[in-house]
Amino acid sequence: MPKMLKEVLKNLFSPPATVNYPTVVPEPVLGLRGKITWDMERCDQCQDCERVCPPGAIKVFPDEKKIEYSPFKCMYCHLCIENCMQEAIKAERVYRAPEYEKGVDIFQVEE
Ligand code: SF4
Ligand code: SF4
Q1: How many angstroms separate the CA atoms of 43 and 53, rounded?
Q2: What is the CATH number of the domain that holds 65?
Q3: Of the four, 1, 9, 32, 40, which is 20 to 30 A from 98 by CA?
Q4: Does residue 69 form part of some domain?
Q5: What is the chain's mean pLDDT, rounded?
Q6: Which pLDDT score is estimated for 81?
Q7: Residue 6: inside a domain
Q8: Shortest-distance Cα residue to atom 6 of ligand 2
Q9: How far apart are CA 97 and CA 66, in angstroms?
Q10: Which ligand 1 atom is the nearest neighbour of the CA of 58?
Q11: What's the pTM?
């Protein structure tokens, strides 16, 4: 009982472990699997990311130098990032904002 009382008193007088979101936005944790983006200047259209993606969230169109990415299929496994020899794919340290419609992101080389 005295051991428990010590814990109760400690928690009673320590600041809360949670933050007042969204008024206070916490710093993203290290290694956060955030929003995935492509750098099309680096991409050589090899299609490796499309081949390794388990849920089929990536479609590469080499002729159009375009990539379609479906964030709603993606499970953030990072296999695409780990297998891209050109290091053209990266995970940003921000969460993707919620969306009402299941769209795809298009990344394309600008002519
Ligand atoms: S694996 Fe990398 S270089 Fe190959 S198509 Fe995907 S993004 Fe482009
Ligand atoms: S993180 Fe995984 S599921 Fe998402 S696009 Fe890359 S390979 Fe596919």
Answers
A1: 16
A2: 3.30.70.3270
A3: 40
A4: yes
A5: 93
A6: 97
A7: no
A8: 80
A9: 23
A10: 6
A11: 0.82
Pairing of the two strands 105-108 and 66-69: antiparallel
107: which strand partners? 67
**How far apart, in whole angstroms, are the C-alpha atoms of residue 88 and residue 82?**
10
> Which ligand has its closest atom nearest to the C-alpha of 89?
1
Beta-carbon contacts of 61 under 8 Å, excluding residues fewer than 6 positions away, are: 67, 68
Closest-approaching ligand to the CA atom of 71: 2
What domain count does the chain have? 1
Please tell me the distance between residue 83's alpha carbon and the centre of ligand 2 in angstroms: 11
Q: Which residues line ligand 1 (CB under 6 A)?
A: 38, 43-49, 60, 84, 86, 88-89
Which mutation among 48, 61, 80, 90 tests ligand 1's pocket best, with the greatest number of atoms within 8 A of CB? 48
pLDDT in tens, 26-51: 888 888 899 999 999 999 999 999 99
